[in-house]
Amino acid sequence: MQTVLIIDDQQLPRIILNEFIRSIGPDVEAKDFDIPSAALEWARQHPVAMALVDYRMPGMDGIEFTRRLHELPANKGVPVIIITAVDDHDKEIRYAALSAGVFDFLPKPLDNREWRFRCRNMLELDKNRHQASLSGDLTQML
User: Fold this and answer.
1) What angle do CA 123, 126, 128 make, to 5 degrees?
2) Which end of the chain is more exposed for a tag (fewer CB within 10 A), N or C?
3) How confident is the model at residue 11 (pLDDT cuts 50, 70, 90)?
């Protein structure tokens, strides 16, 4: 089972994203949070397949959340997609996010087809990352 974190301080986007995640398939589940620090606390104890994170939130923006998530040993390198209404031309925000380890961006409002393709691709990356890790562990044991 792959777990997707959804972090957004607004309830309606979390509801919509939960529905999107459920539509991907039976082997994917969503865990949503309105407070980024609560999501990080949960992620300390659980592996995450992908995170969908709002850029603008009180207390911690999506870039800082990504940095902190990737500091957790079990979640280093987890694909993170920033969901934002920030103007696409604000390159400094994009550069800072990419530097922090963000994999991709989705603009608000969400395009259903684009969202499905991007999330499917990110979840496939996570599966490959996990399989490579297991293969490496087996090689070391031999």
Assistant:
1) 115
2) C
3) very high
Q: Are 68 and 59 in contact (CB under 8 A)?
A: no
3-state secondary structure of 32: strand
Measure Cα distances from 93 to 64, 86, 106 in Å. Answer: 12, 9, 14
Give the position of tokens 């993170």: 80
Pairing of strands 50-54, 2-7: parallel
For 92-103, how does the pLDDT look when each residue is reduced to its tens digit (9 = 90+)? 888 999 999 999
**For 85-94, which contacts have Cβ atoms below 8 Å and span 24 or more sequence positions?**
85/55, 85/56, 86/55, 86/56, 93/55, 93/63
Residue 89 vs residue 35, higher pLDDT? 35
Provide the domain count of the chain: 1
Range of the domain at 40: 2-141
Q: Which residues contact 132 (CB under 8 A, 6 or more apart)?
A: none
Amino acid at 106: L
Dump the DSSP string for 19-30: HHHHHH-TTEEE
pTM, entire model? 0.87
